Q: What sequence folds into this?
């Protein structure tokens, strides 16, 4: 995102999906930081190359322009240790094999909106469902992330457009023993799985919902099933929930998916107001629902702008 200053371009702020262990807050981009972020590309080949390419292009064209990196992983940095732990030997954990969590800028924006619009809920326990091309859930307690469904890379958790989501690592070993190379398996997991792979039609949910192909029924059912199953886990991490928020492309716009998810979560005390849901209203739960269900439009760009301004004003103050 390019921000205008008084005399033209002022600065550029970037969403960088992975900050790894070392980058846990928004930071001014230096050559050292860029080198360090390059080193994280194998953690998430789907996003990191695309995230870093514009940084490099701007650096080349306008080396004087301040650029700020805003990390998706940062919001989850203080999750409890059990939510961060991957059960591998400690040396590997210390080397960075752990659960990081993603879509943090989106969750941060929603947490800020809740603090403003629904302070009781913001102080309580909520599940936020970021359902876009990539999809995840975040367990928000008192405005902080205490658990989330995507872990080390962006492959974990829910069904997404093309990345595979939750998969038994044994299946990967099986594929490797069958003679598939790392590059082939990576391509399979990041680009050919989930909505696209299961439907055999498209990774774009809007197209699947509009199609009368029988395979779409299976994939839409699987999509809401996975959300509901993972929401059960998030509700456990929170010890119960007071609210559920839908956001991002699918969460904001698909009444069909929201209804399918809420129906599966009726056991938690969720009851939907069908008319409000069909109208994409802010509150879509029925008045007698035990859990408040809300729809918010996320705004990752607003968070990037806010962080970029804050980093640059700190930087200016230090160098004054
Ligand atoms: N009206 C809609 N109904 C269902 N899905 C929708 C609708 N509008 C957008 N989507 C879906 O939202 C997803 C993209 O979400 P978005 O948050 O924009 O993605 P990104 O992760 O690229 O920012 C796509 O799967 C798209 O099909
Ligand atoms: C982390 C992730 O999956 O991001 P996106 O939804 O932008 O693909
Ligand atoms: Mg998005």
A:
């Amino acid at each position: 995102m390019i921000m205008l200053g008084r005399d033209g371009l002022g600065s550029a702020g970037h969403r960088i999906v992975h900050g790894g262990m070392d980058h846990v807050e928004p930071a001014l981009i230096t050559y050292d930081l860029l080198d360090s972020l390059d080193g994280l590309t194998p953690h998430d080949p789907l996003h990191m190359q695309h995230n870093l390419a514009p940084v490099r292009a701007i650096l080349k064209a306008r080396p004087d322009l301040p650029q700020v990196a805003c990390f998706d992983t940062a919001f989850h940095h203080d999750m409890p240790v059990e939510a961060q732990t991957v059960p591998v030997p400690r040396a590997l954990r210390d080397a960075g094999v752990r659960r990081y969590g993603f879509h943090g800028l989106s969750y941060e924006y929603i947490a800020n909106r809740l603090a403003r619009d629904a302070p009781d809920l913001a102080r309580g326990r909520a599940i936020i469902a970021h359902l876009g091309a990539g999809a995840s859930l975040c367990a928000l307690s008192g405005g902080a992330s205490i658990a989330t469904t995507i872990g080390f890379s962006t492959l974990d958790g829910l069904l997404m457009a093309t990345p595979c989501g939750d998969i038994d690592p044994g299946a990967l070993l099986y594929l490797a023993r069958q003679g598939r190379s790392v590059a082939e398996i990576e391509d399979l997991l990041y680009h050919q799985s989930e909505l696209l792979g299961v439907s055999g039609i498209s990774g774009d949910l809007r197209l699947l919902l509009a199609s009368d192909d029988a395979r779409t029924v299976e994939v839409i059912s699987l999509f809401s099933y996975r959300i509901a199953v993972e929401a059960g886990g998030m509700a456990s991490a929170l010890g119960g929930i007071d609210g559920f928020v839908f956001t991002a492309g699918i969460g904001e716009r698909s009444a069909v998916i929201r209804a399918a998810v809420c129906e599966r979560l009726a056991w938690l005390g969720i009851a939907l107001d069908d008319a409000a849901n069909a109208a994409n209203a802010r509150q879509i739960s029925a008045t007698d629902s035990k859990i408040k269900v809300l729809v918010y439009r996320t705004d990752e760009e607003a968070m990037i702008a806010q962080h970029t301004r804050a980093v640059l004003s700190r930087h200016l103050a230090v160098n004054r």
User: Anything to note?
Assistant: The domain at 2-100+300-318 is CATH 3.30.420.40 (Nucleotidyltransferase; domain 5). The radius of gyration is 20 Å.
